[in-house]
Amino acid sequence: MPRRIDRALLLNTLHTVPYYTDNWRDLPRELLFFAPQGIDWEKGTVKGLELRRGVWRLGEFAFPRTVYNRCFPEPKALLAKLGEHVAPGNIFNLCTQLDKWEVYGLLKESEAAPHLPHSRLFAPEELPQLLAEYKAVVCKPRRGHGGAGVFKLELAGPELVVVTTQWYSFPLWGEALYVPLVAAAASPGVYLVQQYIPSLERSGVKFDVRLVLQKNRDGKWQVSGELSRVASAQSLLTNGYHAVAKVGEVVSRATLDQLHLLGQMVAEVLDRGLGGLGELGVDFLLDQGGQPWILEVNGKPDKGLFWKLGDGRMLKRVYVTPLHYQQHLLQGKTSALGSRS
Q1: What domains, with CATH codes, occur in the chain?
Q2: Number of Cβ within a 10 Å radius of residue 332
């Protein structure tokens, strides 16, 4: 009978993870890494890479007891089927490609609402009214990632709208011209349109603050990582950053405490609304008056950015905390079995 491993990570493609290789002494005794292609449903096994004492070994194993999903986008049907072989509730990050409109709908009913830019589903005929009200709006795909497909519309004059992407800007004169052109670029139902928030700028740069929130060994949400991406003030998005900085270098302690509270609130609200979450990335910006705004929520935060900070303890938290949450799930199962016996 193939051996069953307690903790596994599900990846889009099978590969080794350098952080876990180099820091195996901080990890549980064994971890299994597998991809959808390695699942044999008929045999009830998975082929994957086992990491044990810093050594990777390819093998065939029974279905693991807990699964930390790192696939993007999440393979919904596969995760549902996998749940039939893994204990209920022992698979987390069931949603890694979040729908921005769904996220907005959940958060606007919470205490986080004052920190959300006004958003609505994109409808071309509403653009003139929205531009008259906000002067500038951002159009973004509901399920976009990494800033792809995002552009800004700014009312620069009575008949002049300036379109700005991450790479270039161009003018469009007249509602009869810009409305159909924008409608061709941003499909209704696929895009949402959002109030543009001018960012606080310092010395020709602007910045965001990213928090990584993860469930810990107690099953509670915690802030495991924090950083700031610094970009040119002329850049539309901070995705095109030229530096990654420690948050304490760009915001005060009081502001950071406020962001931590907001991040915790976001995680708890979305976990209740979506279910099956274990980690989230929350991006904030400060407006020109210092007010924090929730810009984006990511279901699969990029851990690679934390290598740039040179903070070994923070790097360890973002990589290892989800493994501690797996231990929480394992203990919960054991306790439940004990209570029934």
Answers
A1: 7-93 (no CATH), 118-195 (3.30.1490), 200-325 (3.30.470.20)
A2: 14
